[in-house]
């Protein structure tokens, strides 16, 4: 088996603690011969700023570019609230997405049945929920130029951000959504604000055009504001939702919270397949943040990180069975009643980050 | 008493049916001598397009500019899905907002206690909910230039929308939010994406600066994606939320849906006070849309329209007691068990649009 390379970027806050569990997991998988991963670790976010004065160093960017997959923890914390805009922790993540060309962000919002009670929504509305939000990740208002603040004098300033999309960017993300929907419920909702935004008009036009190549897909248009409503009203009406960078940011967070499993949700950010090798650049990260309030206490929930690793196994290494095995192991420990503090329920057993990691690995 | 002028714009779909109830209400109020409203009606949206080829005629724009308050129904429907972008139904509403200078959009998300069960959220999370979303309405990506689609050849197009904010636009909406919060829970959350958008950086800077004039206000910053999450997780943590045009569009819809009272929620869009008269231009509209699927059947819920009229009484005419009386009448008919189809519950009595309007008027 060829060696597969990973680049681990734990980042800040609980990022380091949950990444330590990933290292245990890799050691276990390599030990059993199931995988042959080699890896290095680097710095991103606040810790990179502390060490190098930037949110990610050039050396670490090169390692990220060279690796088969980047495993990312979380960035940010109050310590870096006032660092200059260009070197704020998030800049490291945004640069990784952009320079690795990770245009396709897959954010599953699933409800672990053991946790259906934890949702703020009524149980019957979320039990069995399985939505996949496909978010465009390298375009839109995140990266468009001009993006600047101008001093107008008289104490007045003008701030500008620019939402830009070209047809090809919309086409490729739509096709990712359609391809994934073909392996699921074959239903896609495309969300935009075409009643107000020209980028929405183009978005809708290109998505519908691409949809013609997928006659089996049941394609719906939905306005982004209505999508936010419908997610709250009846999330199970959705299968796959495809949307732009900014709407994807907001709608996927709302969807994640609905499941009651926020601390448990993974994400994958994928580039285009290399024409020669067929390989995609990829980064895997939990949806939750760096949780500075509980960092360093050994109580963070490593499940979203493990589930992100499962996505890496599936999407970067084609190890679909192993990915499913890992996901089943996660469900099993939940069914066994193990809980970290964030998801603690009466009648369950409260465990540390390390105990949760060990329990999942033991199930494998 | 000086005559107060209203301009009624029923619009499309159920807009005409719910506006007919407003006419009954005005006749009643004028009849009792409580008010002295004179009004005219005009066309906006699809019906204006059918009549004049535009989403609102110049003549009607002039009447809207001259009136003390515009009472707006709803616009749009499948019939006009393919009309040219510049004359689509929404363009009428957007022009009204812009030309009347209605920068402050007040969107209360309250949960009528009789309807707490209707929310998709657990009852204890929404019972008694009373959030006020203050949305900037004449700036941001809705109106910034360039806003265009360019043909690049080779079947490729590029779409651009521009998010622009100047300090004064942020300052004045922040002060509206602070002033309103002073009459309520004195807590304001300001939502932006300052970790990604320069307009967010400026937004936060200006809001914090304005906040210094309101030392009693408990001011919080929240990222817009986290705001979407927190609204779903625990909406009662919020009192007033101030945000930009686009985030306000999405977050207020999510908040409205949470209450289980979506068909019941009003909104007010206010301009700056005239330096000479102290009067503000204003438009009042329900949060729900034109509901073409049920239009013409006499079953639409007029409550959001009535609640919008109550906001007009309060904000445009200083008739605070009468506004409260109307709002109480709405709650009372709900407590009595009257329901239009959209909010029907077992054990309640299903009524038509007209019956609901009559019942509320009878309570006055
Ligand atoms: C950290 C931040 C820049 C990022 C985003 O806005 O994309 C985050 O919210 C996310 O969704 O991954
Ligand atoms: C109809 C549409 C243009 C409008 C908006 O996007 O502002 C609507 O969604 C609203 O929230 O009032």
What is the fold's blueprint, element by element?
The structure is a homodimer of 364-residue chains.
Chain A (H helix, E strand, L loop, with lengths): L3 E8 L3 H17 L5 E5 L4 H7 L5 H9 L2 E6 L14 H11 L4 E7 L12 H4 L3 E7 L7 E10 L2 E11 H16 L4 E6 L5 H14 L6 E6 H10 L6 E4 L1 H14 L7 E5 L11 E5 L16 H13 L4 H16 L2 E2 L9 E2 L2 H11 L1
Word description of this protein:
2 copies of one chain form a homodimer. The first copy, chain A, is an alpha/beta fold. Chain A has 2 domains: 197 residues, Isopropylmalate Dehydrogenase; 150 residues, 3-Layer(aba) Sandwich (Isopropylmalate Dehydrogenase). The first copy, chain A, has 12 helices and 14 strands. A 10-stranded mixed β-sheet of chain A has the order 2-1-3-12-11-4-5-10-8-9, sandwiched between helices. A two-stranded antiparallel ribbon of chain A has the order 6-7. In chain A, helix 7 links the parallel strand 8 and strand 9. In chain A, helix 1 packs across helix 10. In chain A, 55% of the residues are buried. At the A-B interface, strand 6, strand 7, helix 7, helix 8 and helix 9 of A face strand 6, strand 7, helix 7, helix 8 and helix 9 of B. The structure holds 3-isopropylmalic acid (2 copies). One 3-isopropylmalic acid (IPM) sits at the interface of chains B and A.
């Amino acid at each position: 088996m060829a060696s597969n390379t990973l680049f681990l970027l734990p980042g800040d806050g609980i990022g380091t603690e949950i990444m330590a569990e990933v290292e245990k997991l890799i050691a276990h998988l390599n030990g059993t011969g199931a995988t042959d991963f080699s890896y290095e670790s680097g710095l991103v976010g606040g810790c990179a700023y502390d060490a190098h004065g930037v949110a990610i160093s050039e050396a670490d960017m090169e390692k990220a570019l060279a690796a088969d997959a980047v495993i990312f923890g979380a960035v940010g914390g109050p310590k870096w609230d006032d660092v200059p805009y260009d070197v704020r922790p998030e800049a490291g993540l945004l640069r990784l997405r952009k320079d690795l060309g990770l245009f396709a962000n897959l954010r599953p919002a699933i409800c672990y049945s053991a946790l259906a009670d934890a949702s703020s929504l009524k149980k019957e509305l979320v039990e069995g929920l399985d939505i996949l939000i496909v978010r465009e990740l390298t375009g839109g208002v995140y990266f468009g130029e001009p993006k600047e603040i101008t001093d107008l004098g008289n104490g007045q300033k003008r701030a500008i951000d620019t939402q830009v999309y070209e047809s090809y960017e919309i086409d490729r993300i739509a096709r990712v959504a359609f391809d994934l929907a073909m392996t699921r419920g074959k239903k896609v909702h495309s969300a935009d604000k075409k009643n107000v935004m020209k980028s929405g008009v183009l978005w809708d036009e290109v998505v519908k055009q691409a949809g013609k190549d997928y006659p089996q897909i049941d394609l719906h248009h939905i306005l982004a504001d209505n999508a936010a409503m419908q997610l709250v009203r009846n999330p199970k009406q959705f299968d796959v939702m495809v949307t732009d960078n900014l709407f994807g940011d907001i709608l996927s967070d709302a969807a994640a919270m609905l499941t009651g499993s926020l601390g448990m949700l993974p994400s994958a950010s994928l580039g285009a397949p290399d024409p020669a090798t067929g390989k995609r650049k990829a980064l895997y990260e939990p949806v939750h943040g760096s949780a500075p309030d509980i960092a360093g206490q050994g109580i963070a929930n490593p499940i979203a990180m493990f589930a992100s690793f499962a996505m890496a196994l599936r999407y970067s290494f084609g190890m679909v069975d192993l990915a499913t095995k890992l996901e089943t192991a996660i469900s099993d420990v939940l069914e066994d009643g193990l809980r970290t503090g964030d998801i603690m329920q009466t009648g369950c057993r409260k465990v540390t980050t390390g105990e949760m990691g060990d329990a999942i690995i033991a199930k494998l």
